[in-house]
Amino acid sequence: MVDALQSDTALDVNGLQIFLLQTSSASRDFAIVWCPLEMSDLQKSFAKSKLAKFPPEAPMAEPMSHLEDAYEEGSSASSLSSTGTMVPSPTRQLFARTGRRQSSQTSLTWTDYFDQELFLPEEVDNLHIVRHVYLTPPTDAAPLFVMHHGAGSSGLSFATCAEEIRKILPKAGILSLDARSHGRTIMTTLDNKTVDEAPSTAAAAQAESSGQVELDLSLETLSRDLVHVIYQTQTRMGWEKLPDIILVGHSLGGAVITDVAKKGELGPKLLAYAVLDVVEGSAMDALQSMEKYLSTRPTRFPSLLSGIEWHTRSRTIRNTTSARASVPSLLYEESEPSDPSRPWVWRTNLSATKPFWENWFVGLSRKFLDARGGKLLLLAGTDRLDKELMIGQMQGKYQLQVFPEAGHFVHEDQPAKTAQILADFYRRNDRSALVLPPKVADMQASAAMKKGTGALGAPTGHLR
Fold first, then answer.
1. What is the purpose of this protein (predicted)?
2. How far is the C-alpha of 378 from the C-alpha of 366, rounded, in Å?
3. What is the pLDDT of residues 184-210, one digit of tens each?
4. Which residues contact 373 (CB under 8 A, 6 or more apart)?
């Protein structure tokens, strides 16, 4: 039927003249326009000329079932679980077919973003812990950005952001760790100490799934781990002294780095600290919906790529490149899966961390405001501010930056913008670039010397 119609074909229906216009001479795509019968030939010609400029193919709408799934998967629990928050707006293109177009893309490796990885062993409390970190060492007197991820995430959460920081500050170092029970950090009892010096994500997860190691993700333990990793990295790299440090923490990581800053365990080497998208008030509120969220997200995936696609389709991570870099460390393939059609499961059992949820965030706002050093709070929305932080912001106690177009993973959704903010934040707190005005006495002495007199006005010539 379409082949029989011409671009000037018109039908009169209920007082309207309906045109079927071909949008391009090289395509079979048509557009339909209707107008009153009394429209002049000039008006009709003008309408045709405008319609001819339409694109040959309009974007297809995503099935509504996908939108419903995405809405259920995004929730206010994001401040706790490091999951995405879906907030509809005209600029977010919720109906764009991004998932299918990107599903064929492969995952990215840590070597695309960091110079090396370190495995740092320690024996403590009848446990053998091999902590895993990604590292790009600083050069000269450049700073070291120390990154701590959120619950259920990994050190590769900061991969794309680290790359962008290095573009702005080429000599800066990046240290991004896998917390215990996350990524490739492995814990075993001393009796079953692993002989693998570089365990995989699957090996680390399976070693802990035996139940022989008691889960301990208390704030005190995680803070101790972070400080230990920093000093152990210094020893491994042979640094005579620590470089200047900027702590950066996302979600749970924000609570950890704030606790470390408040305790002052890094001394004067801590220049400043930045907390990404977590505040005490919203995090505590999110505890009420956390269990419901965990019960609705997928527990298994048929492949690694399907896990990456779920993160982007649900808008948990809105940057496909970052998802390809970070998601592979969040999943592992079971050697003997209970469901062979879906062998990929989560590395971290977030449900098992429930006893520690409240411990992570109680008192966070007060510690953030009271700790020494420069302070930055980077949020995805101002609605996350609680009363204490609002008062602190009005008093100018910290820097506030908001990325309204980002989700909970602000550093993954907007890595370039986050990197620029962090680089500028460092520059404002860099002591080496701070030039103090000379003392008044020194200025007077210098002026006196230029006049040929001493500081007290006595002649400075040779004695005879």
1. Demethylates proteins that have been reversibly carboxymethylated. Demethylates the phosphatase PP2A catalytic subunit.
2. 17
3. 999 988 887 776 678 889 989 988 877
4. 261, 270, 271, 272, 273, 429
User: 128 has which bridge partners?
Assistant: 123, 188
Q: Which residues contact 36 (CB under 8 A, 6 or more apart)?
A: 15, 16, 17
3-state secondary structure the chain: CHHHCCCCEEEEECCEEEEEEECCCCCCCEEEEEEECCCCHHHHHHHHHHHCCCCCCCCCCCCHHHHHHHHHHCCCCHHHHCCCCCCCCCCCCCCCCHHHHHCCCCCCCHHHCCCEEEEEEEEECCEEEEEEEEEECCCCCCCEEEEECCCCCCHHHHHHHHHHHHHHCCCCEEEEEECCCCCCCEEEEHHHCCCCCCCCHHHHHHHHHCCCCCCCCCHHHHHHHHHHHHHHHHHHHCCCCCCCEEEEEECHHHHHHHHHHHHCCCHHHEEEEEEECCCHHHHHHHHHHHHHHHHHCCCEECCHHHHHHHHHHCCCCCCHHHHHHHHHHHEEECCCCCCCCCCEEECCCHHHHHHHHHHHHCCHHHHHHHCCCEEEEEECCHHHCCHHHHHHHHCCCCEEEECCCCCCCHHHHCHHHHHHHHHHHHHHHCHHHCCCCCCHHHHHHHHHHHCCECCCCCECCCCC
**Parallel, antiparallel, or unpaired: how do β-strands 374-379 and 270-276 relate?**
parallel
In whole angstroms, give the CA distance from residue 166 to residue 141. 15
Check if CATH label 3.40.50.1820 holds for domain 112-429: yes
Question: Is 371 a residue whose pLDDT tops 80?
Answer: yes
Q: Which pLDDT does position 228 carry in this prediction?
A: 96
Query: Does the pLDDT at position 1 exceed 50?
Result: no
In single-letter form, the type of residue at position 68 comes to: E
User: Mean pLDDT across the stretch 59-82?
Assistant: 40
In the chain, where are the structural domains located?
112-429
Residues identified as active-site:
251, 277, 408
